[in-house]
Design goal:
- This protein has 61 residues and is mainly alpha-helical.
- It has a domain of 41 residues: Erythroid Transcription Factor GATA-1, Chain A, CATH 3.30.50.10.
- It contains 2 helices and no strands.
- It is rod-shaped.
- Bound molecules: zinc ion.
Length: 61
């Protein structure tokens, strides 16, 4: 009855007052994570961290 409910910028669902402007804690975390990653354009795929061992080996002389 008040103003239109804002949409969650992450998933597009109606935002909840408790988590405004998001619909849930999860979406809030997702958005926060994007900002922390320093690149807001990343669609959300986490970079695989499986080259750790190889990188170490490549470093040996
Ligand atoms: Zn959401």
């Amino acid at each position: 009855m008040t103003s239109k409910p804002a949409k969650c910028p992450v998933c597009g669902k109606p935002a909840q007052a408790e988590f405004r402007p998001f619909c849930s804690k999860r979406c809030a975390d997702v958005d926060l994570g994007r900002w922390f990653s320093g690149d807001y354009r990343i669609p959300g795929a986490p970079a695989p961290i499986e080259n750790d061992e190889k990188a170490e080996r490549n470093d040996e002389r």
